Amino acid sequence: MTHKIQITGFAGTHEQTQVTAAFAQLFRIPEDKAATVLARAPMIIKEGVDAATAEKYRANLEKIGLRVEIIAPAGLSLVPIEQEVPVTAAPVAAGGAVSPQAPAAVPEAEQPGFRFRIEGRPDYAFLTVQIPANQTLKVEASAMATMDTHLVMKTKLRGGLGRFLTGESIFVNEFTAENGQAEIGIAPGAPGDLAHVFLRGSSDVIYLQNSAFVACDPRVNLETKWQGLVKGFFSGESLFLIRASGDGDLWFNTYGGLIELDVDGEYVVDTGNIVAFTEGLDYSISKVGGYKSLFFSGEGLVCRFRGKGRVWIQTRTVGALTAWAHMYRPVKKGN
């Protein structure tokens, strides 16, 4: 079941200027745009989320001093607004985030880049993107599932030998909307969730595992990055990563569910569960235990991240699935 999140106005527990500043921090938008969004209340700022996610949005929005209503699907009762719960002030520190658990999404009314929606989460996520007239969207080869008839597709070679070595397709499809806005539906190959990030300039860089890329704005530059023989061979993954930088939307997919983690210091993730991470995080490959553990415990090599940044992980790995399925393979018995 999907729910909508509607801001109905200011709660009156904080100064409106403080609430506006906190809202801007929460959704990473300029304060003038935040003021415009709040002035339009009541206004739906997010839709297509499950009940648990909707509650997280409401908790964070009420915390900064807003009244919020969750609109349930037809046939379900609306979730009541807890108007009498005391709200603790959420001061915005200079250069600091309002809350480390705040949802890093942009209100759909003020969302930069392409308009889009993600359905079928988290098991079989399906991405639908609205492409404005005469604009182009880059999509991973063979990922297009549906499209309007006036979309024109061109296939281009991307990255040459580098992309070939990553194990990814060396081709990318470019879809251009001619004679008006057009819609495209995109289905990643692996069953799982989809993540969206809006890159803002050359300093905003994300590294993806080689099979994670789904689609992006043509202004986003995709390059291959050599991990090195040690990191590549011993991680059990590819020798290359995809480096995404520039301005615009970027979508990538996971196998299984998606979890977004903020790292400040050191954090350990199994190599097979890593989907993406931000530039600025250093990483190294190491054993989780001794060599005996490596061969007999079922646990092997891990990635140790150091620094400050963000990591996206997937809740399942293909290797674990194949190992599990291998136990049930048909075995031919001897005579």
Would you spell out the secondary-structure blueprint of this structure?
Blueprint: E1 3-10, H1 16-27, H2 31-39, E2 43-49, H3 51-63, E3 66-71, E4 115-119, E5 126-131, E6 136-140, E7 144-147, E8 151-157, H4 160-166, E9 171-177, E10 182-186, E11 194-208, E12 213-216, E13 220-226, H5 229-235, E14 240-253, E15 258-270, E16 274-278, E17 282-287, H6 291-296, E18 301-314, H7 318-326
Antiparallel strand pairs: 1-2, 1-3, 4-5, 5-10, 6-9, 6-12, 7-10, 8-9, 11-14, 11-16, 12-14, 13-14, 15-18, 16-18, 17-18
Structure description:
The protein folds into 2 domains: 1-73, Ribosomal Protein L30, Chain: A, CATH 3.30.1390.10; 115-323, 4-Layer Sandwich (Double-stranded beta-helix), CATH 3.60.160. Strands 6, 8, 9, 11, 12, 13, 14, 15, 16, 17 and 18 form an 11-stranded antiparallel β-sheet that branches. Strands 4-5-10-7 form a 4-stranded antiparallel β-sheet, with no helix packed on it. Strands 2-1-3 form a 3-stranded antiparallel β-sheet, covered by helices on one side. The protein has 335 residues and is of the alpha+beta class. Mean pLDDT is 77; it is low at 75-110, 160-169, 229-236 and 291-298. Helix 1 packs across helix 2 (31-39). The chain contains 7 helices and 18 strands.
